[in-house]
Structures are given as C-alpha cells and as structure tokens.
TrEMBL record:
Residues in Aminotransferase class I/classII large domain copies: 31-371
Classification lineage: Bacteria, Pseudomonadati, Pseudomonadota, Gammaproteobacteria, Oceanospirillales
Coiled-coil regions, chain positions: none
Top EC class, one word: transferase
Protein name listed in UniProt: Succinyldiaminopimelate transaminase
N-terminal signal peptide: none
SUPFAM superfamilies to which the protein is assigned, alphabetical: PLP-dependent transferases (SSF53383)
Keyword Ribonucleoprotein: no
Pfam families assigned: Aminotran_1_2
Domain of life: Bacteria
Swiss-Prot/TrEMBL keywords: Aminotransferase, Transferase
GO-annotated molecular function: pyridoxal phosphate binding; succinyldiaminopimelate transaminase activity
Needed cofactors: pyridoxal 5'-phosphate
Source organism: Alloalcanivorax xenomutans
Length: 393
C-alpha cells in the first residue's frame, strides 16, 4: 500500500463518533448542526431533466463534458463575476463535485521531486491536507484567527516558504469561518504567485450563499488586472450548496487554460467523467438564478433567527458568507459538543477537529462549527436547546 496513507488523519466525523461513543440514548428529537449537507429541496426543474433523460445511462460520457455544459458554466462565470470572456474549450472542465476535483488537481499538479510546500488555511477542508500528503507535498498551515479576520495572514509567510510553494489553497467564503477575501487581497496573492511561481486553487463552493454582498472571486480579480488568461489561477465551484444538489456530484474547475488542458489529460486516465444526464441537469441549474435567490433568502432567515436566540449568550456573529456559524464556546469545544449532545441531543463539530496544532496553538480550540442546513424550525429548536445548555453552565 502507498505508505503516504499512514499520514492521513481521521476524518472529523470519525473523531465526532468517538467523542459521542457510549453516550446514553436521548428522548429528545435529534438536531444536527454538524454536517454541511444542504437539506433544502432540490429544484424540481432539475429533477425533471434527470427523469426525462434516464435513457442516456447507456452512453459513456466524455471526460471534458458536453460543449453545452461548458458553455453554460462559462456564461455563468461571466455573469456572476463580471468577466469579459471565458473560453469554454480551454478554461472550463466539468467535475464530479469540488471534493473530487480538489483532490485530483493536487495529484496532477505537484512535482514531488522538488519537495513541494502546499499552503492552506487553518482551520481547513480536510481534502486540502489529504490531497497534499498523498501527492508527496508538505502541508503548511496558515492560522485563521480573529486578529487576521478569520483568513490567513499572508504577510506573515516568510520568503523561504514562498520559494518552495507549488500550490496555495484558499477558501473564500471560508469553511468553517465564513470569512471572505477581498479583491485587493486576491490581487496581492496573484502578484505573489507571479513572483514565486506557484498556482492558486480557490475553493469558492459557498460563494452563492451570502447575507448582503456577493463575495469576490479569484477570476474576477484576474479580470480586473487584465489577466484574461487567468494565469496561475484556478477556481472550484459546485451545485451542491448553490442549488441544493449534493447528490448530483456536479461542479467545475475553471481558470488557466494551459494548466487545465494538462489536468484534462490526467482526468482522462483517472476515469471520472460526469454522467450525461447529470450534465443536462447541471445545464438547467447553471442557467437559472431564481432558485438560488430563493435558497439564499432561506439561509438569511435562519441566520437572523438563530443569532437572535444565541447572540446574548454566545460569542458569535454572522459570517460574510456561507452557511456556517463559528462561535466561541464557554468551555472547551470537545466538552461543549459532548455535553450538548448528551443533554440536548444537538450535534455540533468541535473546532479542533477542523484544524491542526502548530507551534502549540490550534485556531479551532474553543470554537465549534454549526451548519445551518436544516429547515428553519429545526434550526430554531437546536438554538433554543443550545441556549438552555449555556445558561446552565
């Protein structure tokens, strides 16, 4: 077996299962804030496209996807991020969700003979780390603290680190923090990528869930700099959160055409083409914004309700975007999560499970991630129970 498998950490939900091991059964209805799986209904018009095209199960899909899908994605990018142009033949590749693509892209990109460094936010989506380790890279964890606006302090990264960097992961809006990077920050990172010759992979799968202002994107920053080739920049988007379609496994990678054409060669061998009927359903989803606006409004309503309940008993505030809360806990995060589960049957994810300890500090300590994905009444019920626990502490 690949010896690098031994470097992989248990997934956060494995740790959560261990934390809850042997807790007595509760007579209260469970409320889960732990898993970021959208629970709003999938759009009916997308389901209808799937039902009408099941005969396409008899066809092998092309790795590069249907031209119509790539064009729908390119058109959406132009509309959403105010781009001048996106070449659907060279700058877009449909993928089976961002998780699969983030992992595969890292394997294709890293040159392990150069002892590459891969920079990532801390806390982070664990795929960044696992993909790095299995690709022969060394993770460098950049702490996201209140002092740095819950995004990495890139100015604190030394030149010796930048010189060895091959790949920088950014997540905007962040998981779990909900913090976003401004266009000015993104442009500064692009300049660093030029100076030190590394690639920026921007995970933007939460970009369509926001309170007031649409988050900026990496390609948007490129376009404002006149870089319509999107050199050294790739973005990852998905229908999972935007359109409540996590089971469709549909997303895309877009950006630097030279990089993506080489990534396409990798994917051809990887054997991960999206089924044709999923592609047709994806075209329908990318071409419609009405369901996205409805979805966004539901999250805004839930944030307002939950924050109204918890705002005076917990150190918590609305995120820039995304559907997570990242509150500080009145006791350590593991103890808080276990007691909340035991006494109120409400599940949250300890922040330390999403972070790594570096130089004796873990930025996830004494925080929990709350995913407001359930229906409004469940979110309100869970928040009320959490409030009751906090009042007893």
């Amino acid at each position: 077996m690949n010896p690098d498998l031994e470097q992989l950490h248990p997934y956060p939900f494995e740790k959560l299962a261990t934390l809850f091991n042997k807790l007595p059964a509760s007579d209260k209805t469970p409320v889960s804030f732990s898993i970021g799986e959208p629970q709003h209904p999938a759009p009916e018009f997308v389901q209808q496209v799937l039902r009408e095209n099941t005969a396409l199960l008899s066809r092998y899909p092309a790795t590069n996807g249907l031209p119509e899908l790539r064009q729908a994605i390119a058109d959406w990018l132009v509309r959403r991020f105010k781009l001048t142009t996106v070449d659907q033949d060279r700058q877009v590749i449909p993928v089976n969700g961002t998780r699969e693509a983030l992992f595969a892209f890292t394997q294709a990109l890293l040159d392990r003979q150069r002892r590459p460094l891969v920079l990532m936010p801390n806390p982070f989506y664990q795929i960044y780390e696992g993909a790095t380790l299995l690709g022969g890279g060394e993770p460098v964890y950049l702490p996201c603290t209140s002092a740095s606006g819950l995004q990495p302090d890139f100015d604190a990264v030394g030149e010796d680190v930048w010189i060895r960097t091959q790949l920088l992961f950014i997540c905007t809006p962040g998981n779990p923090t909900g913090a976003t990077l401004s266009k000015a920050q993104l442009k500064a990172l692009i300049q660093l990528a030029d100076k030190y010759d590394f690639v920026i992979a921007s995970d933007e799968c939460y970009s369509e869930i926001y309170q007031d202002r649409a988050p900026a994107g990496l390609l948007q920053a490129c376009a404002e700099m006149g870089r319509h080739d999107y050199r050294r920049c790739v973005v990852f988007h998905s229908l999972s959160k935007r359109s409540n379609l996590p089971g469709l496994r549909s997303g895309f990678v877009a950006g630097d055409g030279e990089i993506l054409q080489r990534f396409l060669r990798y994917r051809t061998y990887h054997g991960c083409a999206m089924p044709v009927h999923h592609q047709l359903a994806s075209i329908a989803a990318w071409n419609d914004e009405t369901h996205v606006e409805t979805n966004r409004a539901l999250y805004v309503e839930k944030f307002r309700a939950v924050l109204d309940i918890l705002g005076d008993v917990l150190k918590v505030s609305a995120p820039d975007a995304g559907f997570y809360l990242w509150p500080r806990t009145p006791i350590d995060d593991e103890s808080f999560a276990r007691q909340l589960k035991a006494e109120e049957n409400v599940t949250v994810l300890p922040g330390r499970y999403l972070s790594r300890t570096v130089n004796g500090r873990n930025p996830g300590n004494n925080r929990v991630r709350m995913a407001l994905v359930a229906e409004l009444d469940q979110c309100v019920e869970g928040a009320e129970r959490m409030r009751a626990l906090i009042k007893r502490l």
